[in-house]
Amino acid sequence: MALTDTDARFTQGNLFRHVTVMSVTSSLGIAAIFAVDLIDVLFISMLGQAELAAAAGYAGVVMFFASAMNIGLSIAAGALVARGLGQGNKRLAAEHAASSAVVAVAFGALLPLLALPNIHAILGLIGAQGEVADLAARYLWIILPTTALSGLAMVAVAVLRAHGDARDAMTPSLLGALVNGVADPILIFALGLGLDGAAIATVLARLATAAMGLWLAQRGHRGFCWPDLPCLRRDLKDALGIALPAMLATVATPVGTAIVTREMARYGSDAVAGMAVINRLVPFVSAVILALSGALGPIFAQNFGAGRMDRVLGTFREGLRFLTIYVLGVSALLFLVREPVADLFDATGKMRDLLYLFMGPLALAMIFNGAIFVSNAAFNNLGHPGYSTVVNWGRNTLGTWPFAVGFGMIWGAEGVLVGQAVGGAIFAVAGLWLGLRVIEAPCRDPLGAHHTCPDQRMQVVSHRSYR
Fold first, then answer.
1. Between these two residues, 54 and 176, which has the higher pLDDT value?
2. Same structural domain for residues 307 and 378?
3. Contacts of 8 (CB under 8 A, 6+ apart)
4. How far apart are CA 251 and CA 264, in angstroms?
């Protein structure tokens, strides 16, 4: 089937506009996800039982790894679908989408089958014991079986983004937040289900998100065809080749956060409290930055599939320009509101000092994290997803621990934050250099080893016509 002008829309038009629209709309979807988490925590805390809030916290750690798996699969789906559209082959794009959906369902079914029989042992590994562990296990017995729904929703949203449908791509997440927000008070308080009600509300939100995402992708773009076994065999290696490194890269972030929190604990409870507030501020003030990797991916992939390497390089540059403008604006805003924010959290002493540091000069360091996300988008969509894993783990280990410790020895708690920023800057520069090398020669390893482009290996093996 021939493509229309809107099927591969990123191969034409103003790149900065594409980057801006995709980043802003993607960030709204991410903000909705954060809102869902906050809504759950808020209502659970209103029950007045510390054990329930702790159980939800432990369950959230386990759910994070399930989410990392689904995020990886959605990155793979977006890369393959957008690449197919860029090649001018809508049937191939739909086959990639169908194969990704099947893989997401399979992994989503396998995970609870493996995890739930061992859930108490898993919770014990992260410190949950006694009644808290029992409550967390019950919560997970309700939510983990719907991992496949969450995976389907993420794949559907990735397909919408791959088609350049920024508006519809944010709609499923917004609907999920709305369903969760309405269902939480009804199930938790009106029906008296407590923690179980919060879990059921999350299930309902996942169901609504998946249904809306699949419907929008199919209605607007016929984004999925019927799954075909030969296509699945062809796509499985490419999908997992992108998804597995992306999963590992996602898991690296909480490792870095844990390292910084541990080092901050050396300087007292005020320092830890300040770090806790900063960790809650970061997702909101950097939602647009967090969205960059997923937002830029389809633009990279469509132009890569179309052989428009000039526009691939342009996307890289415009992504960095957008990032710089955003960080400068947000940093100025944070500086202006740092006093009322510190007052809101009753921050005094070291806690206030750390908030002032983060909402002052260190806010500019967000540009380094953003640069890594831009590089990751290039790696994941130009056939080098393993570099995302290397850069993310390097940044959150070698780029965090020695710098946090070293600068902490010089400047105390403030030095821990400064060291984290310095290490991030070093790995951001390395990521940008590697990203440019990949763009200059996408079919050659930057270290010199030749390999075949993924697109050169693709064979359209489906015997069914796309309709």
1. 176
2. yes
3. 85, 86, 88, 164, 302, 305, 306
4. 21
